[in-house]
Amino acid sequence: MRHTSSITTRIVLGLGLSLTLAAPLWACLTSDACAAETMAETRPDMKKVSAHLSGHVTYPATRAQVLAACASTPEFTAGEKAWFAGRLPEGTYKSAHEVLAAVGK
After folding, report:
1. Which of 7, 64, 82, 100 has a CB 3.0–4.6 Å from the CB of 105, allowing a cystine?
2. Distance CA 82, CA 14 (A)
3. What ranges do the domains of the chain cover?
4. At what angle do helices 46-56 and 63-71 cross, to 10 degrees?
5. CA–CA gap between residue 57 and residue 55 (Å, rounded)
6. Which is higher by pLDDT, 65 or 8?
């Protein structure tokens, strides 16, 4: 009987610790404030942006095409992508230089 009680105690303690440690993470994942902090706009490294625009976008390109080329790239954070998208006006761009000028290089 003592062996069963020990196993039960370990299981209960393990579950309790797991839930205690997971609670802050769960709160962050379900909190609008935490999600907003994760998505906060951050100015990207413009040298990286320039290299990406020159190498991964076919010109002429519309705003939608430029953003689509940048959407799946892992080299920029969600905040950096949001910063860029928030500053790129509608239009058709002939080169990476025009895109950079439009976002206020």
Report:
1. 100
2. 40
3. 2-38, 46-103
4. 110
5. 6
6. 65
Contact criterion met (CB below 8 Å) for 99 and 55: no
pTM of the complete model beyond 0.90: no
- Whether 31 has a pLDDT exceeding 90, the answer reads no
* DSSP 8-state secondary structure symbol assigned to residue 91: S
Amino acid at 47: K
Quote the CA–CA distance of 49 and 86 in Å, as a whole number.
14
Max Cα-Cα span within the chain: 79
Beta bridge partners of 93: 61
Tell me the pairing of strands 92-93 and 61-62.
Answer: antiparallel
d(CA 92, CA 60): 6
User: Could you say which DSSP state residue 72 is in?
Assistant: T
pLDDT at residue number 40: 78
Q: What mean pLDDT do residues 58-81 have?
A: 92
